[in-house]
């Protein structure tokens, strides 16, 4: 059983070094760790300070220009030439919680119908209460497997699979053509739908954990949800028949109960304000094609994508 790890990086810091060392010390060690890096000078400085040997197997750096980055295409490029059984995609700020993470994820493929597995995301120590709730809501303590039979019950969450830490059967990944390219966001969910509709299953493995959380500002959430909605509007084949807003309502209701149990009921006020920014960004993103270029560039967190898209 072999695994290659692909990680896109942008202006990496010391946390990436921790991720690499934890990957190297896994009980099921990766055959290759491929970093597809944007902003070469930041990577060069980081490696020079750290003394890490980029020639030491299984470490590899591929530098690209910022204008070349594409959520789907860049990840596809990283896996080219791989002959591993499985490909693990991660982000540079997702840190393995222990040395069994890869082994536990790979173990989920004992079900021969499983084509993808995603890990449980845990909050870092500095995570806000709202971010801790978000991790618990989207990444519960119980593992499960999703198939097309779950679509009526789970709705859009049937196709939830986060590339912050997700492993794919390489054979199936290549069979289905890899991630869609020209994506602003959400390449993992669009591909997850393709997996499900081809009759395969997706596993959530709660025993495999990574630390991954963000304390986004209200405006950062606005920009993020704008881009999220743009990705959905651009791919109606994946999202037109499932609703994100109904899931969002459940998210808000569940948060209130979570804050009550945490004896922090007043935290719901800033959470509700941030939820408003999320919703505003989402609704504008769903109607991006009715907006001027100037407004789109103001609302998105990824202007390079739109410059490429318009050209």
Q: Please, how many helices?
A: 14
CATH topology assignment of the largest domain: Spore Coat Polysaccharide Biosynthesis Protein SpsA, Chain A
Query: Rg, please?
Result: 19 Å
Helicity, in percent? 40-55%
CATH top level assignment of the largest domain: Alpha Beta
Name the poorly predicted regions.
none
Let me know the CATH homologous superfamily of the largest domain. Answer: Spore Coat Polysaccharide Biosynthesis Protein SpsA, Chain A
Report strand %: 15-25%
The outline comes out as: globular
Please describe the biggest sheet, giving its number of strands, its sense, and whether it closes into a barrel: 9 strands, mixed
Straight-line N-to-C gap: 43 Å
Mean pLDDT over the full residue set:
93
Provide the structure class.
alpha/beta
């Amino acid at each position: 059983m072999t695994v290659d790890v692909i990680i896109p990086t942008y202006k990496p810091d010391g946390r990436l070094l921790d991720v690499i060392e934890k990957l190297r010390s896994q009980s099921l060690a990766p055959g290759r760790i491929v970093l597809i890096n944007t902003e070469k000078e930041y990577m060069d400085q980081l490696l020079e300070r750290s003394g890490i040997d980029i020639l030491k197997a299984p470490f590899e750096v591929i530098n690209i220009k910022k204008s070349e980055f594409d959520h789907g295409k860049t990840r596809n490029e990283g896996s080219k030439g791989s002959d591993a059984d499985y490909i693990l995609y991660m982000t540079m700020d997702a840190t393995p919680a222990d040395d069994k993470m890869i082994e536990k994820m790979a173990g989920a493929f004992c079900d021969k119908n499983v084509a993808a597995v995603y890990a449980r995301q845990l909050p870092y120590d500095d995570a806000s209460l709202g971010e801790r709730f978000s991790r618990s809501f989207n990444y519960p303590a119980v593992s499960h497997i999703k198939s097309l039979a779950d679509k009526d019950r789970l709705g859009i969450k049937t196709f939830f699979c986060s590339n912050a830490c997700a492993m794919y059967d390489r054979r199936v990944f290549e069979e289905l053509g890899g991630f869609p390219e020209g994506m602003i966001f959400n390449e993992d969910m669009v591909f997850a739908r393709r997996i499900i509709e081809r009759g395969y299953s997706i596993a959530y493995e709660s025993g495999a954990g990574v630390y991954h959380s963000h304390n986004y500002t209200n405006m950062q959430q606005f920009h993020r949800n704008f881009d999220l909605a743009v990705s959905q509007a651009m791919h109606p084949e994946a999202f037109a028949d499932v609703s994100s807003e109904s899931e969002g309502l459940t998210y808000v209701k569940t948060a209130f109960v979570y804050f009550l149990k945490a004896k922090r009921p007043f935290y719901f006020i800033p959470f509700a304000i941030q939820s408003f920014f999320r919703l505003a960004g989402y609704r504008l993103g769903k109607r991006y094609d009715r907006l001027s270029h100037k407004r789109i560039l103001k609302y998105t967190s990824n202007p390079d994508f739109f410059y490429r898209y318009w050209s």
